[in-house]
């Protein structure tokens, strides 16, 4: 029933229709969504600012509800975290992403995928174990998988997570610190965890062209990333002016509506930068 799905998606994607339904999911709804495979993945391109080549894509989950259409993660990730369903949700997202990665590899369009994980996902060895098994089963190069963890999640997590992060890195996965600048992680903590990438929070990126404080924070983040041997990623780039400013500051990777909005896999297949 893909035609009906497509219509629903385009209806809900239309700004004019957003907020028409006030769907507040319950734990049971979300459990059903996971069991009935209603979670789907969108992909947002990331561009290498120097070469202007595709660097990878961020995986962003959506819920394709049979009645309410496309539901965004801000409506259900917090619920998943509060109820513990985040464990199954992340498992599903990772599985779907890895299957997609295999598909793109077969088409000779191998794409690095960045997957968001929550603080609860790193309180046990379950997730590292699942990833290890999937990578083996599907013969994926772990360096093609980036795990994104927010700076605030990092503060919540305990010392044990340091061990888990180190395991991920030793297995060859990439690690990204997301929404950087909005949490309060200490620099010593940042230095202890083997992150490969620093993702500047989009609030600073959005404001950098009109606010000198945001500009200063962005500059400092890029410098810090480079000093600590990480790549600097800017998300939330919405116009050329912001792209140019970031490029002049030596930012490595760019993501945002200026480049492309998140899109389903079949659309991503046909997508090209600068066209
Ligand atoms: P995030 O990880 O910070 O992801 C970036 C969000 O910014 C995405 O929203 C993306 O669509 C949006 N965005 C991208 N470019 C622009 C831009 O130029 N301007 C603006 N205004 N926004 C832009 P989305 O997809 O609604 O996701 C929201 C949040 O939900 C994500 O924030 C992430 O924290 C969480 N999330 C999404 N997928 C997953 C997942 O699979 N697992 C977990 N645990 N969390 C997820
Ligand atoms: Ca993210
Ligand atoms: Ca982010
Ligand atoms: Ca965010």
TrEMBL record:
E.C. no: 3.1.4.52
Sequence ranges assigned to domain EAL in this UniProt record: 23-275
Domain of life, source organism: Bacteria
GO molecular function: cyclic-guanylate-specific phosphodiesterase activity
UniProt entry tagged with the keyword Zinc: no
Full-protein residues shown: 123 to 397 of 397
Name used for this protein in its record: cyclic-guanylate-specific phosphodiesterase
UniProt GO BP: phosphorelay signal transduction system
Alphabetical keyword list: c-di-GMP, Phosphoprotein
């Amino acid at each position: 029933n893909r035609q009906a799905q497509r219509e629903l998606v385009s209806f809900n994607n239309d700004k004019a229709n957003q907020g028409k339904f006030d769907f507040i999911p319950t734990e049971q709804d979300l459990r059903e969504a996971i069991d009935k495979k209603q979670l789907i993945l969108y992909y947002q391109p990331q561009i290498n600012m120097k070469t202007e080549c595709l660097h990878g894509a961020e995986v962003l989950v959506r819920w394709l509800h049979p009645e309410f259409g496309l539901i965004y993660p801000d409506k259900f990730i917090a619920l998943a975290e509060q109820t513990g369903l985040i464990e199954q949700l992340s498992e599903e997202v990772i599985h779907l992403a890895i299957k997609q990665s295999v598909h793109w590899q077969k088409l000779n369009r191998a794409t690095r995928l960045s997957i968001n994980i929550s603080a609860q996902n790193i309180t046990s060895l379950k997730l590292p174990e699942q990833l290890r098994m999937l990578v083996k089963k599907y013969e994926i190069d772990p360096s093609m998988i980036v795990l994104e963890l927010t700076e605030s999640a990092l503060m919540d997590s305990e010392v044990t997570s340091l061990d888990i992060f180190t395991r991920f890195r030793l297995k060859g996965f990439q690690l990204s610190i997301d929404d950087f600048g909005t949490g309060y992680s200490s620099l010593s903590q940042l230095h202890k965890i083997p992150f490969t990438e620093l993702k500047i929070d989009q609030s600073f990126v959005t404001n950098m062209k009109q606010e000198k404080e945001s500009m200063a924070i962005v500059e400092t983040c890029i410098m810090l990333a480079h000093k600590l041997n990480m790549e600097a990623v800017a998300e939330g780039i919405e116009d050329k002016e912001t792209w140019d400013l970031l490029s002049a500051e030596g930012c490595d990777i760019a993501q945002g509506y200026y480049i492309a909005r998140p899109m389903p896999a079949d659309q991503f297949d046909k997508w090209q930068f600068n066209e």
